[in-house]
Design brief:
Blueprint (H helix, E strand, L loop, with lengths): L11 E6 L8 E7 L2 E7 L11 H4 L15 E3 L6 E3 L2 H18 L5 E4 L6 H15 L4 E2 L2 H4 L1 H11 L16 E5 L3 H4 L1 H14 L2 E5 L12 E3 L6 H14 L5 H7 E2 L1 H6 L6 H8 L3 H12 L4 E5 L1 H4 L4 H14 L10 E3 L6 H6 L6 E2 L3 E2 L3 H10 L13 H9 L5 E5 L3 H4 L3 H10 L2 E6 L11 E4 L8 E4 L4 E5 L12 H11 L10 H11 L8 H4 L4 E2 L23 E2 L18 E6 L15 H6 L4 E4 L1 H7 L6 E5 L4 E8 L7 E5 L27 E6 L1
Parallel strand pairs: 6-7, 6-16, 8-9, 8-12, 9-10, 11-22, 12-13, 16-17, 17-18, 23-27, 24-26
Antiparallel strand pairs: 1-2, 2-3, 4-5, 4-18, 14-15, 19-20, 20-21, 23-28, 25-26, 25-28
Helix pairs in contact: 3-20, 3-21, 5-14, 8-11, 8-12, 8-14, 11-12, 17-19
The structure holds iron/sulfur cluster.
The site of iron/sulfur cluster (SF4) has 14 residues, from helix 1 and helix 7.
Length: about 700
């Protein structure tokens, strides 16, 4: 990881991992006099000695004057926060918890973990929820980004994670990028894709409603209508199978359900798919030929696929595409979902989900429950699955949830239909939020606990390619802030539970390895050499660069037919345009960290709405003019950006900005299979 020459004596360099996206780039934090003063890229294979602009700015928020430095409690009379001691804050939290448990039971307690926090923080939190409180209601923001990946790929393959490794993209003959603005959302993977095309002559197919930068490099660009992914992918498959491009030996030996699946494609002729998607039939056929005839083809996707009520079906359609062409179980192929946040993969692995324990073992399986009862020495474990994130907000409004603990998340801004979320946060009887800054969500809290940033704690993050990597403490926690797992362990001790008395974060990780077979052979010592990709079942195992080599995790890969269903809210005469949302290269999620960075703020510090030039001309809108965008749920005011990136009748808004929050407009209708909300398509109008 080193390679940047001698470190001057006045500095200390600490190797760690980027706190932003799921690529998992290695950073070196340069420390002087107890402060992180600069960032450098780790000179190794993961990020090839490069960082994107967010990575280069990853030190700028650490010592920001707005960091939370002591616990805060809301004064009953003034409603203002006042600084209190840890003892007072934790005693108050514990007393309110006991009261709710006595009066309402564990079902009235909801807990949210965090894709920004370490595996150790998240493991501690879900253990606290299940073993100490006995509530099944634990979830985190994976529900908003890749819940459909976990559900879909687990059904098809038995494992819901990226099948292959980032560096394998270099040798793929064909790369299909669908629903991923890779160069902005996962820049160092975008760079790999560009290098594969420019230096290794890979063929690039891009499918995206927006004409993203990668579309300009693509050999074949499919600009489909938002929300028509299932139809488009089924259309590719229909051509591939009709023309005999499927991999018959692979299908015969490695999969099941093919005949029924193939029959389900009859309706998805290029002509009909062209009608649904708006992509010309000859383009669909061309893309099918390019993908279907490749010796190795990799699929890369992100939230353009997953954040739909049809999210699971979209993922299943991609799984069908890869299985039908034999593009699984070998290098430079596979299904590669790019996870949004630094540790969203790890938070899922740790079981911060309402239906699985660590390692994706179902909560409804009595033998699994018995295993964890024994391992955690508790008889409190809840029964079946708990509520998902969006369902928790409904439960609050229905007076079923009374006590909430939110670790490092900002649902007031990140969840769909913000007005609904605000009502829930205003309603809940007791809310604890643990974070590094005040956020839109801490504004509703009764107690706010100051957390340690990534630079102030040891632990692990798991990147999108299943690589578990060491995060190292570079400086002491700011003020009185503490690593989240220590605070949770303290609350567990206060309830008299003795099985969270870890003497170190390494000992905590050893417990994770003992109860999580995917991590079974890992330890902090072993991870010091650059990380290991799960599954890594024992100490002699070197990790797994690609999954499903000889057999799928579930045995045979399963073809599951999926049908195209239109999005739940389509344009009409009152709301004649489609809104789609996403991220910018220069900001990250709800901006709690990146909006403290002068470098990133200088690049982009206000919301905007992209509108096609013809639509802008039709409404008399100039570039830069302030406009209102309204949906049935809310309205926001922001600057128009007139651009051909979006097609006609489609608007795009990045979701980072509280002052013009895209989620004021979005729908909270859920995918019935994965409970992910429809964040990518809703009907809106634009007003002057
Ligand atoms: Fe960080 Fe992602 Fe940029 Fe890498 S690509 S530096 S992980 S934000």
């Amino acid at each position: 990881m080193r390679g940047w020459g001698r470190v001057p004596e006045m500095f200390t360099d600490v190797d760690t991992i980027c706190p932003f996206c799921g690529v998992g780039c290695h950073l070196v934090l340069r420390v002087h006099d107890g402060k992180v003063v600069a960032v450098y890229p780790g000179a190794d294979d993961i990020n090839e000695g490069k960082l994107c602009i967010k990575g280069w700015s990853a030190h700028e928020f650490i010592h920001h004057p707005k960091r939370l430095t002591s616990p805060l409690m809301r004064d009953d009379r003034s409603r203002e926060f006042r600084a209190v001691s840890w003892d007072e804050a934790l005693a108050f939290i514990k007393n309110r918890l006991e009261k709710v448990l006595a009066e309402e039971g564990a079902d009235a307690v909801n807990i949210l973990g965090s894709a920004k926090c370490t595996n150790e923080d998240n493991y501690a939190l879900q253990k606290f929820a299940r073993a100490v409180i006995g509530t099944p209601h634990i979830d985190h923001c994976a529900r908003l980004c890749h819940a459909s990946t976990v559900t879909g790929l687990a059904a098809a393959f038995g494992s819901g994670a990226m099948t292959n490794s980032i560096n394998e993209l270099a040798d793929a003959e064909v790369i299909l990028v669908i629903g991923s603005n890779t160069t902005e959302q996962h820049p160092l993977v975008g760079r790999r894709i560009l290098r594969a095309v420019q230096e290794h002559h890979a063929t690039l197919i891009v499918a995206d409603p927006r004409r993203i930068d990668l579309a300009g490099e693509a050999h074949c660009y499919l600009q489909h209508r938002p929300g028509t992914d299932t139809a488009l992918i089924n259309g590719l498959l229909q051509v591939i199978i009709a023309e005999g491009m499927e991999d018959r030996p692979f299908i015969r030996e490695r999969t099941e359900g093919f005949d029924e699946f193939a029959a389900s494609l009859a309706d998805y002729t290029p002509a009909r798919v062209a009608e649904i998607t708006g992509v010309p039939a000859d383009k669909i056929i061309e893309a099918a030929h390019r993908y279907g005839r490749a010796g190795s083809a990799a699929i890369v996707y992100a939230m353009g696929i997953t954040q739909h009520v049809s999210g699971t079906d979209n993922v299943l359609a991609l799984a069908n595409l890869a299985m039908a062409t034999g593009n699984l179980g070998k290098p430079s192929t596979g299904i590669n979902p790019l996870r949004g946040q630094n540790n969203v993969q790890g938070a899922c692995d740790m079981g911060v989900l309402p239906d699985v324990y660590p390692g994706y073992r179902p909560v409804g399986d009595p033998s699994v429950k018995a295993f964890f009862s024994t391992a955690w020495k508790t008889d409190r474990l809840p029964g079946g699955p708990g509520l998902s994130l969006c369902e928790m907000m409904d439960a609050v409004l229905a007076q079923r949830t009374k006590w909430m603990y939110i670790m490092g998340e900002n649902p007031a801004l990140s969840d769909p239909d913000s007005a609904h979320v605000r009502r829930a946060l205003e309603t809940v009887e007791f809310l604890v939020v643990q974070d590094i800054f005040e956020t839109d969500t801490t504004a509703y809290a009764h107690v706010v606990l100051p957390a340690a940033s990534y630079a102030e704690k040891d632990g692990t993050f798991t990147s999108t390619e299943r690589r578990v990597q060491l995060v190292r403490r570079a400086v002491e926690p700011i003020g009185e802030s503490r690593p989240e797992w220590q605070v949770i362990a303290e609350l567990a001790r206060m309830r008299g539970y003795k099985e969270m008395n870890w003497e170190s974060v390494g000992a905590l990780f050893d417990e994770i390895a003992r109860v999580t077979p995917l991590y079974g052979g890992m330890s902090h010592d072993r991870l010091a050499g650059g990380g290991l990709q799960w599954p890594c079942p024992d100490r002699d195992h070197g990790g797994t660069p690609y999954l499903h080599k000889d057999k799928f995790a579930r045995g045979k890969g399963r073809f599951i037919p999926v049908r195209y269903n239109p999005p739940p809210e389509l344009p009409d005469k009152d709301y004649p345009m489609v809104l789609t949302t996403g991220r910018s290269l220069f900001q990250f999620h709800t901006g709690t960290m990146t909006r403290k960075s002068p470098t990133l703020q200088a690049q982009l510090d206000e919301a905007y709405v992209e509108i096609h030039p013809d639509d802008a001309a039709g409404s008399g809108i100039d570039d830069g003019q302030e406009v209102t965008v309204a949906s049935r749920r809310g309205r926001i005011r922001l600057a128009a950006r007139v651009t051909e990136t979006v097609p006609e009748k489609t608007l795009f808004i990045p979701f980072h900005f509280a002052e013009a929050a895209a989620n004021e407009l979005t729908l909270r209708t859920l995918d019935p299979k994965s409970k992910i909300p429809e964040l990518k398509v809703c009907a809106v109008r634009i007003e002057l």
